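Q: What would this chain look like folded?
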Amino acid sequence: MMNTQQILDQYKPFYRGQENYYHNFNHATWVVEKGLEILENFDVQLCVKEAYVHAMACHDAGHLNGLQKNDRENVDIALSIYKNHGTRQTTMERTSSYLIIDSTCVPYLSLETLRGQTILSIKDMWIAIKVARDVDHLGIIGIADDKQREIALTGFMRELLRKNSKEDILNSYKDLTNDFFEKLRFSFYTEHAKEWAGKNLDDMRKWQLDFTPKALELA
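A: My prediction, written as structure tokens:
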């Protein structure tokens, strides 16, 4: 029987120093829990779900929180942490978790890269990776609690402020937010995420546009 909290707790120390930013342990916990919720709609082996929990619990560990040149830097740090962190997983399970972490790197690699790898069920791994990408994308806007969503967006503003001035962000956030939401509408893999987007994306776009100036001030 998988103990999700015990697995999560293994990775919490690797998020030390990230508490005030968006890519913190709260984000990791959210994508683990939301992902498992979605995976319940699929006939996925328990060992794949466990590999998913290890992967997404670690996927933003050591994140540079805005100081990175690209997402590859952040994912390589998380992969290094995972590789050097001992777990009770089998070699095949560890390889599977490693590939799920790597699959969250933007721009995305093709899922065809899974072929030929010594991993758990390819069919189930495809599902786990699609769910991982969807929940990671939902991030801020998928959080149901208003206060927690506000905290997350404020943390994201703190990341942006590490390399951008407040004036530059205020001048560009509307165009960038609208562009993000337009692309997001067509980027989901799972029916759950597509259904969520159909019901909530317009409201979440308005919320993010409205709250960004305040989040910037709070940051």
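The chain has two domains: 4-138, 146-218.
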